[in-house]
Amino acid sequence: MPSSTSVRPPIAADAPTVGDAPTVGVLALQGAFREHRLAFERLGLNVREVRLPRHLEGLVGLAIPGGESTTMAKLMRTYGLDDAIRAFHAGGGGLLGTCAGAIALSREIVGHPDQPRLGLLDVAVARNDYGRQVASFETEIAVVGLDQPVHGVFIRAPRLVRVGDAVTTLAVYDGDPVAVAEANVVATVFHPELSGDDRFHALVLARWGVAAPIGAPT
Ligand code: GLN
């Protein structure tokens, strides 16, 4: 997993809390959670790393990062975070899943019916479906609600092969949806957190009903 290309200075893990700004969580079991943390911190949010069910208390939303979806699923189950995240969602908590995080949120994983998943987003995903030759690539992605495209980093990305009627497509690449939302559940198959551009995270906060205290760059 490459590190963030942001040129802004990193914020220490023990950064002080930002007044009474809301707190968002990043699932920190495995994968690229640090970049989500930095994006939300740059937007002025308090950020908590979530490793146990009790860490979800009081959060307005949770980001599930990229990584390895089978490993993440096993760890979620081991720590009881699968049921805890379902309860968090049922209680109105927002969710963001990027890449492996989108796989975790999905209802169906093509060819892997036994892979555990949260089933909170009515999509079917095909893992690693952008081809072996060009498993990783970067491209500009136009996103509904943003004036300028975002830089999309695709790393062994899953393909969204079906989206349900209640799911809104926020971005399309090569004829397939690559960013979608169902109420306050947002998923991308690319990695907005690796671009150093926080506008996508600000859009997610709006979906969660949270205003970014600092605001995103335009
Ligand atoms: N291909 C990975 C998986 O299926 C996801 C890759 C990623 O998150 N960048 O778990």
Task: Describe the 3D structure.
The protein is of the alpha/beta class. It has a single domain, classed as Rossmann fold (3-Layer(aba) Sandwich). The chain has five helices and twelve strands. It has a seven-stranded mixed beta sheet with strand order 2-1-3-4-12-11-10. Strands 5-6-9 form a three-stranded mixed beta sheet. A hairpin with a 2-residue loop joins strand 11 and strand 12. The longest helix has 10 residues. It is globular, with a radius of gyration of 16 Å. The site of glutamine has 11 residues, from helix 4.
- Binned strand content: 25-35%
Biggest sheet layout: 7 strands, mixed
Give the cofactors and ligands: glutamine
- Mean pLDDT rating: 91
Shape: globular
Helix content: 10-25%
Counting DSSP H or I runs of 4 or more residues, the number of helices is 5
Radius of gyration: 16 Å
Care to count the β-strands? Answer: 12
CATH superfamily: Class I glutamine amidotransferase (GATase) domain
Q: Output the helix-strand order.
A: EHEEHHEHEEEEEEEEH
Low-pLDDT parts are 1-15
- The CATH class is Alpha Beta
Structural domain tally: 1
Distance separating the two termini = 27 Å
Named at the architecture level, the CATH assignment is 3-Layer(aba) Sandwich
Class from helix and strand fractions: alpha/beta
Remind me, CATH topology? Answer: Rossmann fold
